[in-house]
Amino acid sequence: YHAQPSQGTEQEKMDYALNNKRRVIRLVLQWAALYEDLLQEDEAAMAFLEEFYVSVSDDTRMIAALKEQLPELEKIVKQVSEEPKAPQKKHKVLLQLFNTSDDRAQKRQPIRGSDEVLFKVYCVDQTYTTIRVPVSSSVKEVISAVADKLGSGEGLIIVKMSSGG
After folding, report:
1. Which domain holds residue 53?
2. Where does the Ras-associating domain start and stop, copy by copy (predicted)?
């Protein structure tokens, strides 16, 4: 963030520093926006964001051009540092479809809407549970079945993972 060239005119050094600082601020803003939920749980990340905000605020006194990015950075720091709503418990889950029978012994048959599939539901706290739903179930019905099993429907999301990430 504070890298400066050792050569060049004073104006070139200032332009170089300004461009580097803008790039770093943009990177931190994107990172914080992308990982906002996770950052709320990480004290080191929170401390970094607050320290970074203070550093950028200090730099705006010497480099006025940075002032345009300060409100956006302040907004992100405030959003991330806000405590989550007390009674709400967010469940982030991953559903994994798995087959309970041996594929070689299974006869090839068309899938019917009444057939059921078994899902593993992975929670953030490293636990999982299973649900059985009809193949024809909508996303809302799957989420509802998960909510019934977990006892809460707030903050549920479905994430699809593939072998490619």
Report:
1. 10-81
2. 115-165
